[in-house]
Amino acid sequence: MKNLTNRLCLATRNIQSNYFYFPIIGDDHQYRERVYCYELYHQLRRQWEDDESFTLHGEMDKAGHRYFKDTSAPKPDFIIHEPGFQNNHAVIEVKSTDSLKKGIQKDFGTLQTFLQLGYQRAIYLVYGSSVLMEKDNITAVMWSEGSKIIEVWLHAAAGEAAENVNEYA
């Protein structure tokens, strides 16, 4: 896979404010994870080369997959893999700072599951203006869950690149 790190930096830098912090009529702006993820997918696909063996998929439902027959099947935000082969590069979970407390353990569990299945990289991308204040909370959960190899990326503002804060990649 040609440099996912650089692609992720460029893609997050290209996310404009109306996808980062969604304007709501008659209300304040809100973080909307699906809006952010769809734009991130778009920005990543703009960089993809047609001749690459790896494919980017969003919200790939793993229900019915042979690895998940006895458990509830996870649905990660993104996977980068070679469909139909056991050639798996990365799994990415995305969370806004507004919904971070509700799903951090579940997300880390999903990422760990995919690492155990042979994915080379697991990325937890958190976005929002207060993301730098959440860094210690995210890191504490990561260490308590035994997830030292999960990359934590923080995206603090539209027009800026997300940063890998634990540099495992």
Verbal overview:
With 169 residues, this protein is of the alpha/beta class. It has one domain: Rossmann fold (3-Layer(aba) Sandwich). It contains 5 helices and 6 strands; from the N terminus they run αααβββαβαββ. The protein has a 6-stranded mixed beta sheet, with helices on both faces. A hairpin with a 7-residue loop joins strand 5 (151-155) and strand 6. Helix 1 (4-13) crosses helix 3. The two termini are 13 Å apart. The model has no long low-confidence stretch (mean pLDDT 84).
Query: Order of strands side by side in the largest beta sheet?
Result: 1-2-3-4-5-6
Mean pLDDT: 84
The Rg value, from CA coordinates, equals: 16 Å
Shape designation:
globular
Structural class: alpha/beta
Q: What's the number of extended β-strand segments?
A: 6
| Contiguous helical run count | 5
CATH architecture: 3-Layer(aba) Sandwich
Which percent range describes the beta-strand content? 15-25%
**Domains counted in the coordinates: how many?**
1
Helix content: 25-40%
SSE order: HHHEEEHEHEE
Q: Using the coordinates above, name the CATH class.
A: Alpha Beta
